[in-house]
Queue: 2 jobs
Job 1
Amino acid sequence: MNIPMNFICKGHEFNTPEKYVPQPYFRRKFEVKKDLESAILLIGSLGFYEVHINTKNITKGIIAPYRANPDHYIYFDRYDITNELGEGENILASILGNGTQNTVIRIWGGLRFPWRSAPALSFEITLKYKDGTEETVISDENTLCCDSPIIFNDFHFGEYYDARLECKGWDSVDFDDSKWTPAIPRLATRGEARICEAEPVTIQQEIAPVSVTEYEGGYIYDFGVNEAGLCRLHINGTEGQKIVMKHFEIMVDGKPYYKNIRYNGCERAQDDEYICSGGEVTHLPRFTYHGFRYVYVEGITKEQATPDLLTYLTVHSNIKMRGSFECDNEIINKIQEACVRSSLCNLQYVITDSPHREKNGWTADAALSAEQMLYNMEPETTWREWLRNVYKSMKDDGMIPGIIPTADWGYEDFNGPCWDCVLVYLPYWGYQYRKDIKTLKECAIPVFRYINYLYTLIDKNNLIEAPGGLGDWAQVGRSSGRAFKTPCIFTDSVISMDIARKAAFIFEVLGMKENAEYAKKLENRLYEGIRANLIDFNTGIVCGNTQTSQAMTIFYGLVHGEEKRKVYDHLLSLIEKDKEHMNVGVLGGKVLFRVLCENSHHELAYRMIVRTDFPAYGNLIARGATTLWEFFDAEGAKIDSLNHHFWSDISAFFYRYLAGININPTAKDVDNVNIEPVFIDDLKHIKAEHIHPAGKISVELVREQYQVHMTVECPDAIHGEVKIPYGWRFKDNTRKADLHSGKYIIYMV
């Protein structure tokens, strides 16, 4: 498809931290003749756009187009507008937001983005008539422009809107635009134009406040849950009345707390301002979103501070849900809810780390959440679009940055194999759970380039430690994420080995035998290097002597037989020393509870998860968390992001071990599913559902004193086994049965 690149702008001046430039309106009139057969609009922008046809807002979501590095990709959207047009004069009207084209953020390279400019618009309307003739309408000097009431807009910071500057009817055909000026052609862009395939970012639900409290001349609106989105303002205001809405996540000592969502040298973030023109209005900010539970509102009267002043509209990529999990332990249920909510809050086209301060596409966050996302939702299309941007970000030597999109930030620091693994993990797990061959094919060349890059990092001991690389981030009890207890030479080497292993699998599936052998050689070198240098087989102590290093050694198959027993026994001793508390970072958190369940310590894993003292998932819930936090820190410690999803693999653990849904256990056939639950004494009822490519799988467990009644529903195309743990048996005294839909009765030995 030929995509138009006719970019226009209102002017070349753009925002700086010291000076704000209003967002532009655009209008393009065009004639439609009789007997129109079809009308297709292709539209893209540098920054974000909203597009109206004959006063109707047809924009696919609240943020469009897809957010990317415009030197890599410039995204366009396709609309069929046939039914929006009438014979005669019609109007395309648009308003632009800065997006990341013109951010004033001072960190992550924002102020030195090479593409910084005023936002720009490109569109083409193709009109086809029944007689076979065709006409096009393009963005050019016939498009008129004017300043809009958005006097400041920034993707990270928010919107300042002056309703007194509104042009009533600006998007209608008969609006008087005689004082508007022609748009200016913009210089050529560097990125490759493409149509966005990812699901749009849309409004999902409305939440009313649970309380409104007067505070220091303003009012605090509490919505009861930490989410991502915007507040719709409904007010009958006086002309010139200025309303300021400050969004934040937590109250500390009875006061709003902003430090965890603001930047050094910036006192304003997640702030929206609205200046009234007089009368009753409803307003929703554009081209941004926030992460928050609370809003502190200034500039309203006591009479205006009603519950319906603000309504929370939650926002995320419009992906389908695929699974559900619940049990009779409310702590587990709330952890599950927090995992799903945190993930959705951070699916905003890009798979972000947090919906407030950063909104960055951190690579490891997506990798660590991959399996639970596949159990709970349908992320493949969004993954695939973001991965295309990951591939574009690769340097010639194969290095990728820690955040994507980016310009130059995150290449020489804040990356490394433990973060870069997303390049392989998303395609790999998408194939294992969904048989997504399309993503596998697209990733092959970038993955091979990355394997080449890892070869350049391997040292004389067959180990890898990437300079500036990240390791077991967010170590429990540490307020500084880079205070790694587990040495990076261990985590880098192990994850690099696993990357090579999974890359070899990908190449084998694609019939790339030589590439597979090349990756296997790297895997074997790292395997031998780790065993020779980082594991003490006499004591079972692994490099770092941490829960993470012990659990990762077992999980990634680095020890066997008696040597595995020693490593595992030492892991248990460390857990005992920590009084049955988790003491890991995100890499260890991914594997610790899985390793315990695989070695018959499921009761221990369960106790560690649900306990309500620090540190544990249950402790977060006891402290009021409705989303996952970036750090497991004690009460009173530094507060960082309270809406991170990279601890969310615990949700996959619930599906896999508590409900027992084990998809593709041999990594050879997605239609092979085993039901292998562990039985927890405290859990009397578990129910889980998952939409598999072949259809719905559901498992319900009801435990009585000496029996478990299990009901399974699965498609006929599924094949596998039902396996139960030691200490339990079927009626025929076995611990295995063929998988089929129906009821199973399991007896305690």
Job 2
Amino acid sequence: MPKKAQKAISANDVTMPAPVPDIPAPVRVEDSAVAKSSTDRMVEAIADQLCMIVADNYDIRIAVDADEENLQVQKLTVLINSLLENVRRNIGSLSELAGDLESKVQERTLKLDLVVQGSNDGVWFWNLDNNTVEYSKRWAELVGLDAEELTSIEDWLTRVHPDDEERLRAALREHLQGVKPHLREDYRIRHSDGTYRWMWCRGRCHRGENGRATFMAGTQTDVHRMRSIDSLTGLPNELALMAALDDMITAGLSFYAFVIAVPRIDAVNDEVDSEELSSLRRAIAQRLSSRLPFGADLAHLSGDFYAAVVPREVLFGDLEEIVISPLLSAFEKPVLTKRQRVWLDITIGATMPIGKTGHTAADVMRDAWTSYRAARLRRVRSNMLSADQIDAARSHANMEQLVRMALERDWFVPHFQPIVDISAATIRGFETLCRLEHPDQGIIMPGDFISVAERLSVMDQISVRMLDRALDLLGEWSTRAAPYDGLFLTVNLEPQQILQTDLPLRLEKALKQRKIRPELLKIEIVESSVIGNFETAARQIATIRAMGIQIALDDFGTGYSSLEYLNQLSFDLIKIDKTFVDGIETDGRKRSMIKMMSVLANALGADVCVEGIESDPQARVAEELGIKFAQGFLYSRPVAQSQIDELLGGTTGVKRRLA
């Protein structure tokens, strides 16, 4: 069969599959061998080209003899080329899509890398199926290691500080168990140089269809500076100081520890703006730091308090000469701000050298603070802690706990000391005094707990309880016959209680509820109740006296303005302090002073009571001077409520002395 010019038929020549030509008439049997041979050749040629197409990424098309009369072959050729074109287009689209996806992945990876690099965080990935952990190079750098050295979760956790390890393990476990949605924990981890650094860890796990965690990933951030450096002064903070103390104690090193206060800086707070104040505090830190020997550590605690730690090994001389004197002299010159020169001073509390003796960092700082408070009490610029100061501080701390417990458990009880009518030789009333009655330690006297209660600002609570107990007792006496009928009680109130505007109303209500005659209650106040609040105190006193309640001025003569207040205020009873009574049997000047006070009080319509009568000669002098009332150990010490009946019944010494 002669060959004719061939024309390639491709999918580019058509935009859609060509119309299917009419199906030719069936081939006669006698012609089938020839037709089959020609068709086989064409199919074989097409198959060969298809193999080449597959190898060439579909970038060619099928070509057949243009004069080929076999319509089925031509039809097949057109269909194949059309399909190839669609495949080529789809592959092109997929290639373009793959390129876009790869570009986006690269962009997202770049952004993620920039974020991680910018945050300077270390990254970790924990495969829980095989229990292996991949650590980034930065994660390893944070602890001074190579990433190749770290392969497991224990390589991480065993480096965590012993005080933080259990907490971090618990946080990991709680997140993996689904108790917490995220892992967020800070902790200290050991660096390869042996020091501990503060880190902040965040992470989250992925869970399979069964809810079980399969892998977990997260970051680790170095927050050591944030946690250990004071942003204002640039000095280590208290957290860093405590860690350094722990390290020194563990190493068995001896050192001195100091608390340094700049008490007068509060006075300039209102005179300088915040920027100047910050600059002032930085200057203070620099001055303190410059006066410490090399090798010593300075830290900022809080407010205007600093701490210093000086190892014994850096001291080449006397502590006073090498450390304390230079620190005290640091502020002989003023500190300059933008607008003024500020003169400051410091107070130093120091502890003795501490070695490996079972102390903790908290113990060291407690002793340093104790030494500082001792310096303040002694009004000295520096103090070295002594054993006596430690004992006193511990006793004070124990008493603080005891006072709080006594309030909670109602251990504060009233005791009563008789107030005697000297001339009539009878008990006319009692002063209500507070005692702390411990179930094991017994009676604790006011001298041991009053100052502590005042510092804790709970004396008003104690005073209210004593007032309630006294009112209850007066209410009980009001239902009984003589000698209880007509007995009065005096109750000491705190200065702040006198100034409470609702006090008169509360007193009036309490008296009515218990059916007590107002004149049987005497409120004792001291001079400090009036100082600084004279007008308010005067109104309160006038209101209370108008109700029939009597007012007594206690410790008369010990203040600076007693006579002035006596002139301006009205009192029903003046109590002369024991300091004037001591020695009156031999001291003529004291007798004259008491006589003068008595005449003045009587002229103003007030009775007089002398306190602290301890001997018969003192009692006789008081009677000779015309004093009406007296109280003291000569008659009776303060007694519990249960003993009052014995005093009034004459079975004790007080009755015999009056007889």
